[in-house]
Automatic annotation (TrEMBL):
UniProtKB keywords: Cell membrane, Membrane, Transmembrane, Transmembrane helix
Compartment(s): Cell membrane
Source superkingdom: Bacteria
Keyword Transmembrane helix: yes
Residue span, VTT domain: 37-153
Key word Transmembrane present: yes
Pfam family name, one: VTT_dom
Transmembrane segments: 20-45, 57-78, 99-117, 137-160, 167-189
Descriptive protein name: TVP38/TMEM64 family membrane protein
InterPro entries associated with the record: TMEM64 (IPR015414), VTT_dom (IPR032816)
Stated family: Belongs to the TVP38/TMEM64 family.
The species this protein was found in: Cohnella lupini
Length: 205
């Protein structure tokens, strides 16, 4: 059972409460760089050691730090190497690269929320795209919040079977509605801005 494995790991390391971050934060860096295991495991470890609220909060903050650290390092020091690596897998990720250019941060939020592409690959692809650092930071804040919130709902039902998670589910649904509405509003204004630019160009012809 997953819960037994987690219990054994925590007992073997003798870490409890916030001290579990001495184990999970370095593993978050490994996961963010190499993607050797699902981040869900670390979220579950944090929840087991710190409870649902602090477990989700520390998982969220850790994921934001690591996502931006990986993005910055990839773009600043390894951009050429990662760009060549992406090109070798162009057929596999071409669709998402195109969505990056079309929808920017919204594509990143979607990819962070749903387990479509590993977190390390998301950071890698973003680093060789035209997305700006601030936009990436905001997408990691919102996208990782969505991801961890969703995983928290799933894992809490396993780790804390008797806990009422209706408030967690309801608030997540409300959060998703706000994000979707914000997406459509941003696309509307983007289209309006594009129409104005086109009209201005036609006037100067």
């Amino acid at each position: 059972m997953l819960s037994d494995w987690i219990k054994n790991l925590l007992e073997s390391t003798s870490l409890s409460g916030f001290y579990v971050l001495l184990l999970t934060f370095p593993l978050t860096i490994v996961q963010g760089v190499l993607g050797l295991f699902p981040y869900t495991i670390l979220i579950v470890l944090n929840i087991s050691a710190m409870g649902l609220t602090y477990g989700l909060l520390t998982s969220w903050i850790s994921s934001i730090i690591v996502a931006n650290l990986v993005f910055y390092c990839c773009r600043s020091f390894f951009s050429e190497w990662f760009n060549s690596k992406i090109k070798r897998k162009e057929g596999r990720y071409e669709k998402w690269q195109r969505y990056f250019e079309l929808y920017g941060v919204w594509t990143l939020i979607l990819l962070r929320t749903l387990p479509i592409i590993p977190n390390n690959v998301i950071s890698l692809m973003a680093s060789v795209s035209s997305i700006k650092l601030y936009a990436y930071f905001m997408s990691s804040v919102i996208g990782n919040l969505s991801q961890i919130w969703l995983y928290g709902i799933i894992s809490s039902s396993i780790l804390i079977p008797g806990r009422d998670t209706k408030w967690l589910i309801g608030s997540y649904v409300a959060f998703c509605i706000v994000v979707v509405v914000a997406f459509f509003i941003s696309q509307f204004f983007k289209k309006q801005r594009g129409n104005r630019i086109t009209a201005d160009k036609q006037l100067h012809l």
